[in-house]
Specification:
Blueprint lengths: L1 H32 L7 H16 L9 H23 L6 H11 L13 H4 L8 H7 L1
Helix pairs in contact: 1-2, 1-3, 2-3
Protein name: Dynein heavy chain linker domain-containing protein
Organism: Adineta steineri
InterPro entries: DHC, Dynein_heavy_linker
């Protein structure tokens, strides 16, 4: 019976971990589809912080699981981009700024089409690799 109790406990842990993991992935997908002009950085920052707090409350035994590490990496990487996203969402960002970023990253971003331009386009920019240049441009 001890093994059954252990298995039940592990299944409960996994349910909590994967429930949070799925919630994070769904939320991130929603962020990526968000039209840029509707992107609310404060709300997203708070939600990411809530996810990170929920992760910290998970049982310590889960911290060795690969899914935990993946989830932590996903949240940490996105959280690291938030200060740059805050700079880029600034209304002072003009077409010339976006054109410089496009040239820097060697990509096209539909920044002139407010109905198409979304976070997924911004996230194609190597934000962390180009951090200093983006800070200078914005």
């Amino acid at each position: 019976y001890i093994n059954l109790q252990t298995i039940k406990k592990q299944l409960n842990y996994l349910k909590r971990l994967y429930g949070l993991y799925n919630n994070v992935l769904k939320t991130m997908d929603k962020y990526y589809e968000t039209i840029w002009k509707d992107f609310h950085i404060d709300q997203i920052t708070n939600e990411i912080q809530e996810f990170q707090n929920k992760m910290k409350k998970l049982p310590k035994g889960l911290k060795t699981w690969p899914a935990y590490s993946e989830l932590k990496k996903t949240l940490d990487n996105f959280n690291e981009c938030l200060p740059l996203l805050e700079l880029l969402i600034n209304p002072a960002m003009q077409t010339r700024h976006w054109e410089r970023i496009e040239k820097l990253a060697n990509i096209h971003i539909p920044h002139t089409d407010p109905l198409l331009f979304s976070l997924k386009h911004v996230m194609t920019i190597p934000l962390m690799k180009s951090r200093e240049e983006i800070e200078d441009i914005s």
